[in-house]
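Batch job 17 of 40 flagged for manual review because the log was empty.
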Amino acid sequence: MGLGAGQLAVVYRDYCIGELPAGANVWRAYRPTCADNPFALHFLLVMYFCAGIALCVWGLLAMIGMASPLKWR
């Protein structure tokens, strides 16, 4: 559940800033902004938000015993 909460905190911070770290381009980090590429920014924000919600729900279900915990290796 902590991983999901951290993911949602990153999404909220990046939504307020208007820039999102989204991986690497060939020589530098790819950071879409609302001014440069608003579609990519909003698409990635939705993807990160859905991942954060999924991790929070899975963590909550694991705490009450309805889902198996993550396998840490």
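Reviewer: the log was empty due to a logging misconfiguration, but the result itself is present. The mean pLDDT is 87. Unflagging and moving on to job 18.
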